[in-house]
Amino acid sequence: MAIVEVTVIPVGTGTTSLSSYVADMQRILDKTGSAIHYQLTPMSTIIEGDLSVLLDVVRQLHESPFSGGAQRVCTSIKIDDRRDLPSSMEQKMRSVAAKLQR
Predict the structure, then answer these.
(1) Measured between alpha carbons, how far apart are the two ends of the chain, in Å?
(2) Cα 31 to chain center, whole Å?
């Protein structure tokens, strides 16, 4: 299972508020059902699942602000694709907590 951190920044929107764009992108994530697991953070969204599904979801997220009137969109992604052992957002957090003895 891959983990992707994605940040989508609409440019040319006429406002500094981006929450309506974030809400639109969250609706896209909600529609994926159980194909992915995601977590919204204040600065990005983290999604996990099959890499091919995640890349399709990232494409949809990137396209979304154009539908909302953005004239330009800058998208950054980071991919953690570990194949030697099972990996997930939850597992990564448990690993750090164990090292902190929490």
Answers:
(1) 25
(2) 14
Domains of the chain: 2-99 (3.30.70.930)
Distant-in-sequence, close-in-space partners of 32: CB < 8 Å, separation ≥ 6: 53, 57
pLDDT, tens digit, 9 for 90 and up, residues 51-84: 999 999 999 999 999 999 999 999 999 999 998 9
Q: What's the whole-model pTM score? A: 0.87
Q: Check pLDDT > 90 for residue 33.
A: no
60 contacts 47 by C-beta, under 8 angstroms: no
| Strand pairing category for 36-40 and 2-11 | unpaired
